[in-house]
Amino acid sequence: MEAPEPFVREAGAGDGVVCTHSNASTSGQWRSLMALLAPRFHVFAPDSYGAGKSPEWPSDRMISLADEVALIEPVLARAGPRTVLVGHSYGAAVSLIAALANPARIRAMALYEPTLFSLIDTEGRPPNDADGIRNAVAEASKALDAGDHDGAAAHFIDYWMGPGSWKKTPEALKPPIAASVKNVRRWAHALFSEPATLAQLGSLTMPVLYMTGKRSTSSAHGVARLLTNALPNVEVVEFESMGHMGPVTHPEQVNGAIARFLERV
Q1: pTM
Q2: Bridge partner list, 19
Q3: By three-state DSSP, how is residue 182 classified?
Q4: What residue ranges define each of the domains in the chain, with the CATH number in brackets?
């Protein structure tokens, strides 16, 4: 069987930049960043498994972040030998595992709140900072089992964006988000079972821009506390008015920070 290939958005010319998106989203979240970077960089934005126009995960085996990296391997190869990785949430976690698999080809990373919850559980068993997302996944899973995709999306989106956020989401945007949340157990498995250790991630010496939102969740802040102390060449930027979905809710500010970082590195 041929290896599945992702759908990829592409723009510009120059050094390679690969942008990976969050859960319940698609490569489309990076449109404005791609337009900003295209005059100087060759920018790629793939859809992950089950997102946008990429194929569904084709196996009964539970997915890992390494499987997500394998899906975008053709994109990483096209981006060239000194690629910059840009990632948000789940996509930022995928970026870290891609860098760990082949650090020599990654020049730098710009990450907004990678969700490597396995690091929190390794530091100390529950109850811990990951309990909020663990509970949100459990409630979303119950809703899915009851056939309530809208309810599942509400549990997931309201955890990350605040109570009532799903209700306020424009009706036209709800169907694809609700459809994608069927994968919530799969996402959680990949993030909570990732075997990469803090010591291994601390071996990544390339420059890292680590972005967080002050209004984000304890799970995102818990991962940030661990990773920003482990990564040896990290620059931390905290956005005062943002939560976990900063790249979607405040793209101009986040994209500007990424562009300035790329100019420096």
Answers
A1: 0.97
A2: 86
A3: helix
A4: 8-126+194-264 (3.40.50.1820), 131-186 (no CATH)
